[in-house]
Design goal:
3 helices; about 80 residues; mainly alpha
């Protein structure tokens, strides 16, 4: 379920980045971090038996996604304010 919820937030940030003209640099790095951490979270979820350790690892990858999306939003805001 959180994949669907995160997709909306990620899409909104990418849309705002496109409209603000925030291209390249940090926005791209953070976007890749979101996608890679989502893939890793999903891989851990489907590949390992549920336990406290796997839940902690999944949460760590989820936390990376959230932090990267926040960093993207800040980068977009700074880029929009600069123009």
């Amino acid at each position: 379920m959180n994949c669907v919820e995160n997709l909306g937030v990620f899409s909104a940030i990418v849309f705002c980045a496109t409209m603000a003209g925030a291209e390249g640099g940090w926005v791209d790095i953070f976007a890749v971090a979101v996608i890679v951490s989502r893939i890793c979270q999903t891989f851990v979820h489907v590949s390992f038996v549920p336990s406290n350790v796997t839940a902690s690892v999944r949460f760590a990858f989820f936390f990376i996604q959230v932090m990267a999306m926040l960093a993207m939003a800040v980068s977009v805001a700074i880029s929009a304010a600069a123009t």
